[in-house]
Amino acid sequence: MALIQGIPGEFGPQPWGEAILRTGELLLLRITRRPADHEIRLPGLATTPLHVVEEHTGRALTWRLDGDDLLVRLPDSGETPVVRVALEGKLRIVPPDTVTANADGVWDLTPTGTTSHLIARRSADVAVRVFADSKARIVLANQSSVTTDVNRTVGPFPMPAGLVVPLQVEATGVRRILVAPIGTVLASIHPTGDGELSVVVTNFGRATAHGEAALKLPDGSRGRWSFEGLDPGASIAWPVPIGGLLQIAGPVPIDGPVPIGGPVPIGGPAGRHELRVRLDAGRRSASSPYTVHLPATG
């Protein structure tokens, strides 16, 4: 049986051809480009196959499941077949944009449209924090809510385990969406301008939060911040200049007596660096990583 319960839908074009739903429980795989290894992969099939055969001969084909992907071995010779896949039930799929929660039960999304698809590892009530230019309408787990404050979380929404759940966010200028279980205090890193980042701590809990956040930068320096009385649903942010001479606006985010508004040179080796805030805000502390690319300096 498939481990993930998908949603009704259809498959898009595949590298080897197309998957066509003939009836609710029968798929036809039309192969127009035979892979060199004679094996095709159909990603995101959430309904367990009963059998897989050649359409014209009825000959059984070797197949297996790799997670929620169906792999079918084609005959090594002869005409490229049409493959018939009989399913145990109605076709359900796992859309290609589906994101599974991380080990902390958190989703960190950079959406390309209004709808994303989520899978929870464990059932939980979650809240949503949208980073956008306007208030947002959020639809998740068959519940709808409109943000009253663009800078606060919205929820709770019940998330079942192992089920693909659409998340719809309608807002202007959506840059980032964070979804986390109720009770989580989450640190995240956001770009705010040329060469500058912002460390954000969001309280997804029902009680005020306090704690300390620390970030090691690519050049080995460290930023450290503390916070008290962070209200439920609220966020707090600190700017982090990274790479070059940048102006600080707000709390001083690095160790040492640097005047507010003064230039702070922070760099590091060229290349890709994954940054992660170390957050100490109780047992439900979580942190979402962020990748930066530093250019070579000549």
From TrEMBL:
Source organism superkingdom: Bacteria
Protein name stated in the entry: Uncharacterized protein
Organism: Kribbella steppae
Lineage: Bacteria, Bacillati, Actinomycetota, Actinomycetes, Propionibacteriales
